[in-house]
Each structure stands twice: as C-alpha cells, then as structure tokens.
Amino acid sequence: MKNKTAHQIAHVLIEALPYIQKFKGKTIVIKFGGNAMVDEALKHSFARDIVLMKLVGINPIIVHGGGPQIGNLLKRLNISTQFIHGMRVTDSETMDIVEMVLGGQVNKQIVNLINIHGGKAIGLTGKDGDFIHAKKINLNISSAEANASEIIDLGHVGEVSSIDPAVVNMLCNSDFIPVIAPIGVGDDGHSYNINADLVAGKVAEILKAEKLLLLTNTAGILDKESNLLTGLSISDIDNLIADGTIAGGMIPKTRCATDALKGGVSSIHIIDGRVEHAILLELFTDQGVGTLLVRR
C-alpha cells in the first residue's frame, strides 16, 4: 500500500513538472473571493497554494473582495445599506467602513495566512504607491415606460481609470507576494470602492499576466443544462450572454475576463473556489477544474 501511494505521489509530481517549467517566471493574477475566503480549511488551502506557486518560481498576485464582511460590519454598526443593480450605494460613512474592512481586516488576514504558511506577503490598496486611480461611476437606468433615463449617484463607487504597476513590480522582484484590496483614489482625492473582478482583470492586463484565475462559488461557466463548459472564446462568451446562458453576476465577471484577454492576458480560468487546492489543480494538472477562456 505504501509503495502504491509513493507511486501515486510520483505520478502527480511528474504530471506537474511541465506546467511548473512553463509558468516559471510568469505572473499569475488570482481574484480571491466567495466561499474560499470564509471557510477555514479552504483559506489555508489557498494560502498553501500561493506559497507553493512562489516557491517554484511563479509570481502570484492576489486581488481580494470582501462584500459579505463589509455587510456584516455595517449590520453590526446598524448602518443601513442599499444595492442598485448589484452595486452597493456607498456614502462617505459607508466608504470609511469599506476601507476599514477591505484595506484593514480582510487584507491583513490574507497576508497573515500566507505568511503563516511560509510566504512573504505584503498588503496594499490602490492608495499605496499611487497604484490604482479610480473614476466615479454613475448608474444610468433607462425607463422604457417613461421613455427616459435616470442617473443614479452611487457615491464612492468607482472603476479603474489607470494603474501604475511600479509598486507591484517592485514587490514581485523582491520576492514578496502582493495582496491587493480593490480601493482606488480619484483625482478628487476621495477613495472609491471598485469591483474586485474588475481590478483583478485590469491588473492582469497591465502586467501582461500569463493567466488570470477567478475563484467563484460555482464549478465554472455552466450551460442551460448545468453542464460545465470547459473551453470558451470571446465570441462564445458574447453568444452565451446574448442567449441568456450567462446571466446575473456572471456577466460582469465574464466581461472583465474578455476585456483582459483583449488587453493581452494569455488565458482566464473561472474556477470553483469551493474545491480544496483548486488553484494547483487548475494550473498543474491535465484536467483542470473550471472554465478556460481564450482569445481565439
């Protein structure tokens, strides 16, 4: 039995070898969110995956979300919150909470977890090193009945206007693992909360990353019969959105993925963060565990 187990381990290592060789020296951006951020076993699994990637010569860069944690603190503080088309209306008071949770609590927990497992992680927001510049989003909602549109002020909700990768490049070249909270700063000096998928896609695009991995709470992109779609192109994504197969919260996720592909990222993987060691299974095995998106 021991001999069989040893052979199985050897087989796994040999299967991983060509992938390690292929990705050595390359940058891979990982959007960390969903169940993987709240389940203790999955959090430790994720941290070990990241440390292993760095040890074999890959440059992992982590961008994290934190919507549920923000919601929990707002509830505890008895601060009401409103969502419009999936986006949190963020006034100045709420933005203070967002910065406290994303830039402080969540970011430092991830940094600490990676360091516990032998890595050297450093946390930052878009304010550090003049890293992420943001511009304010105003939501334009059309009303077919009134034949008009309404501009809704979401407060401190933004999108990426530009990214200066200097601080991230410095960290990677110094053997550190950057852990990025999706907060940008506007030309007005105000902080803005930015969708983490969008930040991850833009960071991957600017750095010309080899891959962008988006951890989700699903197996990947599913067809209408709930079967996993394992390989898709940009045109496939457009068609799946048009026919309603991709809907809801998966639309902005896939849109940021296709933008990153058009911007030079080699491939995007939407993977199931509920699977232990999902990152290693996707990167270093022949089968993978999610949906692969490519330009073709």
Structure in a nutshell:
The protein is an alpha/beta fold and 296 residues long. It has helices at residues 2-23, 40-55, 67-76, 92-116, 166-173, 196-206, 234-242, 250-262, 278-284; strands at residues 27-32, 59-64, 83-84, 87-88, 121-125, 132-143, 148-163, 177-181, 183-185, 191-194, 211-216, 231-233, 267-272, 290-294. The N and C termini lie far apart (46 Å).
From the structure above, extract its key features:
four-stranded mixed beta sheet, Carbamate kinase, 296 residues, 14 strands, 9 helices, eight-stranded mixed beta sheet, alpha/beta
What does this structure look like?
This protein has 296 residues and is α/β, with parallel strands linked by helices. It has one domain: Acetylglutamate kinase-like (Carbamate kinase, 3-Layer(aba) Sandwich). Helices cover 41% and strands 27% of the residues. The protein is built from nine helices and 14 strands. It has helices spanning 2-23, 40-55, 67-76, 92-116, 166-173, 196-206, 234-242, 250-262, 278-284; strands at residues 27-32, 59-64, 83-84, 87-88, 121-125, 132-143, 148-163, 177-181, 183-185, 191-194, 211-216, 231-233, 267-272, 290-294. The strands form three sheets. It has an eight-stranded mixed β-sheet, with helices on both faces. Strands 6-7-10-9 form a four-stranded mixed β-sheet. A two-stranded antiparallel sheet has the order 3-4. Strand 1 (27-32), helix 2 (40-55) and strand 2 form a beta-alpha-beta unit. Helix 3 (67-76) packs across helix 4 and helix 6 (196-206) packs parallel to helix 8 (250-262). The model has no long low-confidence stretch (mean pLDDT 88).
